[in-house]
Amino acid sequence: MTDINNRSKIQFETRQVIPLCSMMLIVCFAAVYVMAAGTNGSASDMWIQNHCFSAPKVAATWAESLTLLMAGLRGTSSAFTLLSQHIGELLNVCFTSTFASADRYQVVISCYLMWVFGASMEQRIGFSRFFMLILMAVLIPWGVVAFEAASRDPSSVYYGPFLMLATLVGASFVFPPEKKINTEWFKSARGDIFAKPQEVDVMSRYQFKPMLFLTLFIILQVGIYFYNLGFMQYIPAFHPGLKTISLLAAAAAVLLGYVTVSLMVWSATGSLKDGPMRLITVKMYNDILKLDVGHETAIKGTAHALGLPPERVKEWVMKQKGKMRVS
């Protein structure tokens, strides 16, 4: 039976992957804030105004970049050198705007939300896919901000991780909520009363709960918005002129996250419709295998828990071999 089980198992990781990329992003939040706050800890507002997303400045840099591009295509070799500098400036604005925080409260909230949404998503799709998703989230939504702010509010400066987090929120909609089952019956069913207890995952207490954290995300971001700009006579403006929310860009970011991760899941599972369910099925199958049960028992237990035919579970498990890793 041991040989059969070894042949049937999918080579997945035996524990949840440490979300290294999410940790690095949290470090970026702290580093940018330290750089912005300065030695006295109160220079962040001025730093944000000078280094973060201002629609007129970005529009002027973009227009100059297009002019340099046309000049380079006409044969002016020095134009491409200047063009690369302008592109570097635009990329730097997107990066600093995404990771900037106006005060210590905002940087703590940003780090917390990054951990909540980022760690869960990174463990689902893996480091490389998550890194690519973050790269797009840092760059693409700011183009929508430039379009919206140029006509509606050109005087304000935009900053903060709202758009990157909105992208992760959109990505989280791809995966249905996971179902948890009591796996103790596997042990008792085979008479393994002396089996070692299942290892407790230290991340389980911080498990991602979509609706709870979505509500928390909205409340905190709206709170930061009015904390900066004030609200009538009730809340004074602590950081006037600094905006963190762009509704049109937020909608684009949510759509970006949903579409991108849907395509990632499709590329890994070969199915756009039931790809997320396939990954959850394989994850539960792998969790049951950790109890030292056989392949067939894990198939039946997964099918029973998710309400799927055992043949379907077996088909998905075998087709997933060698593709997206599920822990």
Approximately how much beta-strand content do the residues carry?
Answer: under 5%
Q: What is the average per-residue confidence, as pLDDT, rounded to a whole number?
A: 81
- What is the alpha-carbon Rg in Å? 24 Å
Helix/strand-derived category reads: mainly alpha
Q: Can you count the beta strands?
A: 3
Number of helices: 14
User: What global shape is seen?
Assistant: globular
How far from one another are the termini? 24 Å
Give the strand order of the largest sheet, numbering strands 1, 2, ... along the chain: 1-2-3
Give the helix level as a range of percent: 55-70%
How would a crystallographer describe the biggest sheet?
Answer: 3 strands, mixed
Helix/strand order: HHHEHHHHEHHHEHHHH
Low-confidence stretches at least 5 residues in length (pLDDT < 50)?
1-15, 189-195, 198-206
Task: Describe this structure as you would to a colleague.
The chain is mostly helical and 327 residues long. A 3-stranded mixed β-sheet has the order 1-2-3, with helices on both faces. The N terminus is likely disordered.
Write the layout of secondary structure elements.
Layout: H1 2-8, H2 20-37, H3 44-51, E1 53-54, H4 55-73, H5 78-99, H6 104-125, H7 127-152, E2 157-158, H8 162-172, H9 184-189, H10 210-229, E3 242-243, H11 247-269, H12 275-289, H13 295-306, H14 310-319
Parallel strand pairs: 2-3
Antiparallel strand pairs: 1-2
Helix pairs in contact: 2-3, 2-6, 4-5, 4-7, 6-7, 6-8, 6-10, 7-8, 7-11, 8-11, 11-12, 12-13, 13-14
